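Hey, resending since the last one bounced:
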Amino acid sequence: MINQEYKAMLGAKNVIRNLAEYASSRGKEIGYENVFDFSLGNPSVPAPIQFTDTMIHMLEDESPMKLHGYSPTLGDPSYKEAIAASLNRRFGMSYTADHIFPTTGAAGAIAHAVRAVTKPGDTVLTIAPFFPEYMPYIEGAGCKLKVVPANTETFQINTDAFEEMLTSDVMAVLINTPNNPSGIAYSTATLEFLAKTMTRKAEEFGHPIYLLSDEPYREIIFKGADAPYVSKFYKNTLSCYSFSKALSLPGERIGYIAVNPEADDADYIVPMCGQISRGIGHNCPPSIIQQAVGRVCDMTSDLSVYETNMNIIYDTLVDIGFTVVKPGGTFYILPKALEDDSVAFCNKAKDYDLILVPADNFGAPGFFRMAYCIDTEKVERAMPKLRQFAKEVYGLG
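The structure tokens again:
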């Protein structure tokens, strides 16, 4: 008999993908330029030319066996050394190559990190709003996911609920900053609270509590945002990173785990990840992409368009009368819908060819997400449609 658990998952609808497919279908009818699709978080700027040049140089001048041969189990040494050196320069850390494990994006990093610091039956705590794919990541490791309700005033951590829910069965806390879907970066004060609370609770329970920090938007930070490096605050931190956003390489699936050198059992975690890979068939990202990204890991794409787009959308939302917290980074914004039922709100927006994502699956019912990684020209054309929708349907603006 085939696996019934995975068969049952086939019936679960991915709201974002369904909306993106609707936008594509609608675009065939009226032209995609006339569909204002804020559904998918797919980077809209090209990779740096230095990355392209590096790939061309490698393919033309370097040994095919080096470029295309098997990567070592624990990753390409040059990639690991480059990542460690970059993090140390930028954030004042003391990583070595032995603290870095290459992964297929941040998803691969989380999958390994969870398995490294939990056992089946343990609980992982996350904070709403959160990326819905955390559910299969955690449950696939045999763990239970508990969600701290959102602080909808600021989208920082709901401190009272966090303290109450950080119980003895919790072996890891999974956070995402800057955050998808809210765009909020956890502040210094928030991270200090998190570190202090987790340290106190770990001492009380008599076991470590690891912090898994999901950081694919770490480089997309807006002017004035307080967005410190998470691992500076709490020793038992595993940073889970992807270059999909910073270098605009989502399809290359390249990231890493960086284990804080001061973490409990830090010397074992990366070798353990190699053993975890044997069980889940991961076996490291492709050799060539590790080598190429290692050479440009301090660079980013031109990310400035995201802040430009954010300001246009935020100013318009506020002017219309929406309740919205200004993002500190990413390419997402999470306004409150103009009615309690955000699914109904987003369905009504489709009549104006505005493709918005209800945030119920993100743990924020009553809100909706806009992914503004699209051309600024299209963002500007979408704003009159948004005003028209709010005025004609809800009498705002």
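The chain is about 45% helix and 10% strand.

Sorry for the duplicate.
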